[in-house]
Design goal:
single chain; 421 residues; mainly beta; 32 strands; WD40_rpt; WD repeat; repeat; Autophagy-related protein 18c
Length: 421
């Protein structure tokens, strides 16, 4: 085994982890044991941003800097918590919903911790409640209320959150980006990661004890995301032109949308909570929003009943572009643009019959951006230059999105929303 696990005494029980309604959700800061904490009023505002990551419900995000980490609430936008440290930086800061539990990995030129070490930190108790040391650099950490997932370049470790017991080891193709995604619905437990072949995605349905391998692309996987219940998977390859949506239980490709014709580096893929919209950010400086034509049959059923039903028969409904979409899309909702030459599909090049984006938002091509859906028809974008955008799109007509908010969140005076209409 390529890891060492340390469990300090008094490890919290799973029932005490991550209550969204807990009064311990980012209350007033307590002393940060170990590294010395700088006074917030004297914090170094020139801190370098090393990482940004959404929490599981996209209501908050964490920013790892060269001198600590910060937590931001998205709506309304405000900084809710900060640790400015003298010791060093954090390359990974992973939240557990909105609670006081964090997974921390060092980063930057002066890392707070070694790059092969994961610290599970309880900020309410001001102490480490779990520690993992590996033989190679940690590429990513993912958290659920019941699981801790640590991603290395060639292997993924899955631990039980309650006692830190190792549950699964998963071999992957070289994975320098640390690609791995989890479902966060308590009734389903799904993990998706690169397989052992180029363009392959491995999907683990832990609750059903089912493993599915999906040949998603001809090129290596560059980005992937799951729906909250883990029943849908969206992927992109290193080519970056197509995004594909799959049924994770039988591997069926349900839809394919086109970001563009030129090769691009896909930075993030986001699915709206109602699984109606998909957003993609890339190095081309444009966030594209697509309308999805897939749904889970029996939307009024519980997730648990849906998964049980799927175990016996596919529940994903797929309509091709020549079929009616009325039963899949709400009234007055637009569809993605497609070529007028689509009737010649199979003769013309594939991109003539591709589905193009429904709405777009243009950004400076100077940094990496990750995106997520906010309330109603809004999209949020975080830049590695310390920028936060909120924009909205027309549900009927699509087209260019409207910028509603712009904030430089690393600046001390950016504690309140600054609308930009």
């Amino acid at each position: 085994m390529a890891s060492t696990v340390s469990t300090p005494r008094g490890m919290p029980q799973s029932g005490r982890l991550g209550s969204l309604d807990s009064p311990r959700s980012w209350a007033s800061p307590a002393p940060f044991n170990g590294p010395e904490t700088d006074d917030i009023s004297n914090a170094d505002e020139g801190a370098e941003l090393l990482s940004v990551s959404w929490n599981q419900d996209y209501g908050c995000f964490a920013a790892g800097t060269s001198s600590g980490f910060r937590i931001y609430n998205c709506d309304p936008f405000k900084e809710t918590f900060r640790r400015d440290l003298q010791g060093g930086g954090f390359g990974i800061v992973e939240m557990l919903f909105r609670c006081n539990i964090l997974a921390l990995v060092g980063g930057g030129s002066h890392p707070q911790y070694p790059l092969n070490k994961v610290m599970i930190w309880d900020d309410h108790q001001s102490r480490c409640i779990g520690e993992f040391v590996f033989r190679s650099e940690v590429r990513a950490v993912k958290l659920r209320r019941d699981l801790i997932v640590v991603v290395l370049e060639h292997k993924i470790y899955v631990y039980n959150f309650t006692d830190l017991k190792l549950l699964h080891q998963i071999e992957t193709l070289a994975n320098p980006r640390g690609l791995c995604c989890l479902s966060y619905d308590p009734n389903t437990s799904v993990l998706a990661c690169p397989g052992l072949r180029k363009g392959e995605v491995r999907v683990e349905h832990f609750g059903l004890k089912v493993t599915k391998f999906i040949s998603a692309h001809d090129s290596n996987i560059s980005c992937a995301t799951l729906t909250v219940d883990g029943l849908l998977l969206a992927t992109a390859s290193t080519k970056g032109t197509l995004i594909r949506i799959f049924n994770t239980l039988d591997g069926t490709r349900l839809q394919e949308v086109r970001r563009g014709l030129d090769r691009a580096d896909i930075y993030s893929i986001a699915l709206s909570q109602n699984v109606q919209w998909l957003a993609v950010s890339s190095d081309k400086g444009t966030v594209h929003v697509f309308n999805l034509r897939v749904r889970v049959a029996g939307d009024n059923e519980s997730n648990q009943n849906k998964v049980a039903a799927v175990a016996h028969s596919p529940v994903m409904t797929h309509q091709n572009s020549s079929s009616s979409l009325d039963d899949l899309m709400p009234q007055n909702t637009g569809a993605n643009t497609s070529s007028s030459l689509a009737f010649m599909r199979g003769v013309l090049p594939k991109y003539f019959s591709s589905e193009w984006s429904f709405a777009q938002f243009h950004l400076p091509e100077t940094t990496r951006y990750i995106t997520a859906f906010g309330a109603q028809n809004t999209v949020m974008v975080i830049g590695m230059d310390g920028s936060f955008y909120r924009c909205s799109f027309d549900l009927v007509n699509g087209g260019p999105m409207v910028q509603r908010e712009f904030i430089r969140f690393l600046n001390a005076d950016s504690q309140r929303p600054k609308p930009s209409f």
